[in-house]
Specification:
Layout: E1 10-14, E2 17-20, H1 21-41, H2 51-71, H3 79-94, H4 107-136, H5 146-188, E3 192-195, E4 198-201, H6 207-237
Antiparallel strand pairs: 1-2, 3-4
Helix pairs in contact: 1-2, 1-3, 2-3, 3-6, 4-5, 4-6, 5-6
């Protein structure tokens, strides 16, 4: 159960700066995303002739349609950002399927993403209502709930960050705990075999993999989509 409940490990250090697993995995996600974009968008034709172009157009159309429905025609310029956010959150969660630490299992990652969403919300509120209208909104519908509106404003990015982080990190911890318990149970009943530093525990085969499909694949995909949706809904609502 090594690593369960612990933060990301420090991979290396440069000039006093600690580079953690989250940073390295984040770089890996970016590299993979760039490669996929290059592969899917190379040699595009006006009329699709390859399956990869069909896939690329389906993904673009899906993002454009979702942004249009949730943010409106006037905010279609946010489509590239929403696409990048969705891809990063999704791939950052799904890399755990390959035995790597999820980028979104680090609160620093999800909080950074949520802060960007908060900045966009604030920017659009000021853009569409002016600074005076933005400040006046904290006193609506009555002035004495001003403190509550301030808390509500800050709670939006905080809840988004903890929602994504909690689901991904929680799944990782539960899977790790179960994996360790099954290993201990294998040793108790005599179904644990070791040869030097190598060890094989019978009960660790199968069950953790099934849970991993749920926590890593299903839950990771759903939570990445929810985060992107909340970003669109909150930023889109800023203009109303």
């Amino acid at each position: 159960m090594d690593g369960v409940g612990q933060g990301p490990k420090i991979v290396f250090e440069i000039f006093g700066w600690h580079c953690t697993e989250t940073v390295v995995m984040g770089w890996l996600v970016i590299v993979i995303a760039v490669i996929l974009c290059k592969v899917l968008t190379s040699n595009l034709k006006k009329v699709p002739e390859t399956k990869r172009q069909v896939v690329a157009e389906m993904l673009v159309n899906f993002v454009n349609k979702t942004v249009k429905e949730n943010m409106g025609e006037s905010m279609m310029h946010y489509a590239p950002y929403i696409c990048a956010l969705l891809v990063y959150a999704l791939m950052g969660s799904l890399i755990s399927l390959f035995g790597l630490r999820s980028v979104t299992a680090d609160l620093n990652t999800t909080l950074s993403m949520a802060i960007i969403t908060f900045i966009l919300i604030t920017y659009n509120k000021i853009k569409y209502h002016g600074l005076g209208g933005y400040l006046k909104g904290f006193a609506q519908p009555v002035a004495f709930i001003f403190p509550l509106n301030i808390i509500s404003e800050v709670a939006t990015p905080a809840s988004m960050a903890f929602r994504l982080f909690g689901n991904i990190a929680g799944g990782m911890v539960i899977t790790g705990l179960l994996y360790g318990c099954l290993g201990y149970l294998s040793q108790v009943v005599g179904l644990s075999f070791a040869a030097g530093s190598w060890q094989f525990d019978v009960f660790q085969v199968g069950i953790p993999a099934v849970l991993s499909i749920y926590f890593d694949l299903f839950s990771g995909t759903i939570q990445a989509y929810i985060f992107a949706m909340l970003t669109m809904v909150n930023v889109g609502a800023a203009k109303d």
